[in-house]
Write a structure and sequence with these properties.
mainly alpha; 647 residues; 5 strands; two-stranded antiparallel ribbon; single chain
Length: 647
């Protein structure tokens, strides 16, 4: 009786390897020709795929080698696509894994877009064959079993990321995947994979959106299903919270005190002991090295978040309003928290800076929208927020729920305070200062007198002005510095001229004047070193206010012995209001609304950063699993929503 051949074949004494590896080696070797018999391919795809082995084999070939082996690669692709329609789910799963690795490794070579197509499918057949491939992935995501749907989702995400810089991605742009991705997010069986679906949506909607028509942008703008939006928001919140925890694991910045000895306290077991050993050798370098590798790869979700916020005002409202039951920190509270860590550490790497800027753009877009701004100062939307305190000086710790706009302001102050360096990131500071101006302007228009530690904001701005004055030799020639300085001065002029409309009381207004008096001759020096005209200008207005009070103090000092006390200076500030004249600055609270076209270069760069991170997550199999199926949420009106219920 003949015995069946085992899937394991002996390749050398004392070692066994899966038979599929032998088939890989038989197929991908110099001079080999693609088998034409159906029997070979049935066996090839029925045996369990070994992605790591196939990847190693393909990595060993150069771009030139693959061009010579295009016949084999094309046959594997064509046969694999055909197998995606097989009735045997094991064959379908193996075909998806094989095609994913094949595409990834071919795209990893230094090949042009046309060469990639030549190797993978052939220039004369690409339109037909690749569209069949995309259609098959969409069909499996829509009608397959739960496991197959998730496998197809990941295969699609991998392929889209790999083909992002080639013409092949246009097949995914033309084939509308939006409905099937929404269905994956909506269905309880697959909603735990919202992260992958939303990241894929972000990559697709970002591709060439400013150069040509992108149907995913239209889909985002027209979308109105609140239950799906809420599941997305819950996922965003959980991802942001987990990302923040990675910063805290490096340096625990709890309000009860922060020290180098507390670093890595969140780690457990061997990992924590290993980190502690590094810390003993060089605590500061160890922390800096660890922080340089952050944010985690899951930060790629910020690209999709930004695209959705920009395209859909209703989503912006849902993002702010959504609350999860029994949690003090709302999803958007977690977003603000994560952004505070990004903004304080954005100087550590180009990747860090990209995600920090993306998070800041979302803050700006929300603040500019009158309805979203009203929700940011709404009692119903308040949240606790753990904001970054990993670098000195730290802002006052506020326990409990706060208005969301307070957390946004704290994050902006952190960005100003902790990124001052000679190689100043001027565009980032222009965005930060501009967002602060918009917050104050909107509070003024809404006539909301916010109880906030305004003193910390003025301290931060004056410290920044002092820094750029002292460092003028290094900064004066940087492009955009005149705009940055003028924007910063305009924020202060707006505060002086409209403080009564947004400051919580007279004490806050007095403190603003006190901070100006403390600066002494700073503004005069600033205007001199940067050649700024004083007449009919914002800095001229500030200097005139400063001179007004310095003259009053000088007069009072003539009748007093010694220096004036802080109480006496406060009295002078109050009495000086009657004789103070602040010249009206036309359009001092005017600002241009956000336009994506102004960020064209950055949006291309951050799109690629997110693509690379998503690829690495897939390669490491570190995709986060966020279960939103039982996340009962409530909107800003206190209405409970959950388990995919319709509204």
């Amino acid at each position: 009786m003949a015995t069946l051949e085992s899937p394991l074949v002996r390749v050398e004494r004392g070692s066994l390897q899966p038979k599929i590896i032998g088939l890989y080696q038989q197929l991908f070797k110099e001079g080999a020709k693609a088998p034409e018999t159906d029997g070979f391919w049935v066996e090839f795809f029925i045996l369990k795929a070994n992605p790591s082995a196939l990847s190693v084999i393909l990595e060993g070939f150069s771009a030139e080698d693959l061009l010579q082996m295009q016949g084999i690669a094309q046959t594997v692709f064509t046969r694999g696509v055909r197998s995606l329609s097989d009735s045997n789910p094991a064959i379908v799963a193996n075909a998806m894994e094989t095609l994913t690795i094949l595409i990834r490794e071919i795209l990893a070579k230094q090949l042009t877009s046309s060469e990639v197509i030549t190797v993978l499918v052939g220039l004369d057949r690409v339109d037909r064959e690749f569209m069949v491939f995309v259609d098959a992935l969409e069909r499996i995501m829509r009608t397959g079993s739960t496991n197959m749907r998730i496998a197809a989702l990941r295969a699609t995400l991998s392929t889209v990321c790999c083909t992002y810089k080639t013409s092949l991605i246009n097949f995914f742009i033309q084939r509308d995947l939006f409905p099937v991705l929404v269905q994956i997010i909506y269905d309880d069986a697959t909603t735990s994979h919202t992260f992958e679906a939303f990241v894929l949506l972000g990559v697709l909607s970002n591709y060439d959106k400013l150069e040509s028509y992108n149907p995913y942008q239209t889909r985002l703008a027209d979308f109105v299903d609140e239950s799906v939006m809420q599941k997305i928001v819950v996922s965003i919140g959980k991802i942001c919270k987990e990302a923040r925890e990675e910063y805290i694991a490096v340096a625990d910045d709890a309000a009860d005190g922060f020290s180098l000895e507390s670093m890595f306290s969140s780690y457990s077991g061997l990992a924590r002991r290993a980190k502690s050993a590094l810390l003993q050798q060089d605590p500061q370098m160890t922390a800096n090295s660890a922080l340089a590798h952050l944010p985690p790869l899951s930060a790629a979700i910020l690209l999709a978040t930004s695209n959705f916020v920009q395209a859909n005002k209703f989503f912006s409202q849902v993002l702010i309003e959504t609350k999860t039951v029994a949690q003090e920190e709302t999803p958007f509270g977690s977003y603000v928290s994560f952004s505070s860590y990004l903004l304080q550490h954005q100087h550590r790497s180009e990747r860090h800076a990209c995600y920090a800027r993306l998070a800041m753009l979302v803050h700006r877009i929300l603040v500019e929208d009158p309805i979203a701004m009203q929700k940011l100062v709404s009692i119903e939307c308040r949240s606790s927020m753990r904001l970054c305190r990993q670098r000195q000086p730290c802002l006052p710790f506020v326990k409990g729920e706060r208005f969301l706009i307070e957390g946004v302001l704290d994050a902006l102050i952190g960005a100003v305070d902790h990124n001052m360096k000679r190689a100043l990131d001027v565009p980032m500071y222009i965005l930060t200062i501009g967002t602060i101006q918009r917050v104050i302007s909107q509070l003024k228009r809404l006539r909301i007198r916010l109880k906030y530690h305004w003193s910390e904001l003025w301290k931060s701005i004056f410290s920044f002005l002092r820094f750029i004055t002292v460092s003028y030799k290094h900064l004066r020639g940087i492009q955009g510095m005149p705009i940055l300085i003028d924007d910063t001065i305009r924020v202060l002029v707006l505060a002086f001229s409209a403080g009564e409309a947004f400051l919580s009381g007279a004490a806050d207004y007095d403190d603003l004047f006190y901070k100006l008096i403390e600066t002494g001759e700073l503004l005069t020096k600033l205007s001199t070193v940067y050649d700024m005209p004083r007449e009919h200008s914002s800095i001229g207005t500030l200097i005139s206010i400063s001179e007004h009070y310095h003259n009053l103090i000088k007069e009072r000092s003539m009748f007093s012995s010694g220096h004036l006390s802080s109480e006496q200076v406060s009295d002078i500030i109050k009495s000086g209001y009657d004789t103070l004249s602040i010249s009206a600055q036309q359009g001092i609270d005017y600002w241009d609304r956000y336009r994506e076209s102004d960020e064209r270069v950055f949006l291309k760069r951050i799109g690629w950063v997110a693509v690379v991170d998503a690829q690495e997550l897939l390669g490491r199999k570190l995709l986060p699993n966020v279960d939103t199926s039982n996340a009962i949420v409530t909107n800003g009106n206190g209405i409970y929503v959950g388990n995919g219920s319709e509204h």
